[in-house]
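Problem: given the chain below (250 residues), write out its structure.
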Amino acid sequence: MGSLKNKVAIVTGAGQGIGAATAKRLAQEGAKVAVFDLEPGRETVQTIESINGEAIAVACDVSDVEQVDVAVEKVVSHFGRVDILVNNAGVIRDNLIFRMSPEDWDLVMNVHLRGSFLCTKAVQKHMVEQRFGKIINISSASAMGNRGQANYSAAKAGIQGLTKTLALELGPFNINVNSVAPGYVVTDMTKETSERVGLDFEEQQQLIAKNNPLRKVGKPEDIANVIAFLASEDSSYVNGQIIYVNGGAR
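Solution.
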């Protein structure tokens, strides 16, 4: 504990799921956390404060350049710096390609991929000035392709390309850029997917677990633990990597 003491972290999409678990985990390690979400993530902030952590809630649509710039400057003004960015915000609008609307394509691409670009662009100038930073982009095992998720898979694959490029560009400034690609994780988003295909959520988890080498499904905390490692100095020589956290599923 305490590996991130005096560090300042931004976690997007931190109102629930993996983002909320990540915000809490980073706070447990001593980081001051800015909780970004469409609606102020006050519940996440309260959870962090209950463990004697420090956090602020910032309402932000990560696909809107003006909102992102204002939100990042608010964090720097409040905490004095920004050391860690976790690009986690995401939505799903699943459908087979012949049913997928251009609007659903654009929404998913804008939140995941454009959002990661805009947030990174806004924080990198501060990280470059201080010659230090950790950027962790959340991809997905779906980047390899997943039926009914042309928009989501494309966005998550794009995040992997973005990660590798940013690692090359920002590495000389002592900024590590990596990506975590979760497999199946029990969240409100996977519950929504379950409902979409007409499966009972508990039955879906059992089916996924049965076919996983570890015979279990992931929890938000499993992903948060890996993100915490990448945000720490223990990962100082890890750069441009895509780390799949999926129990060994192929």
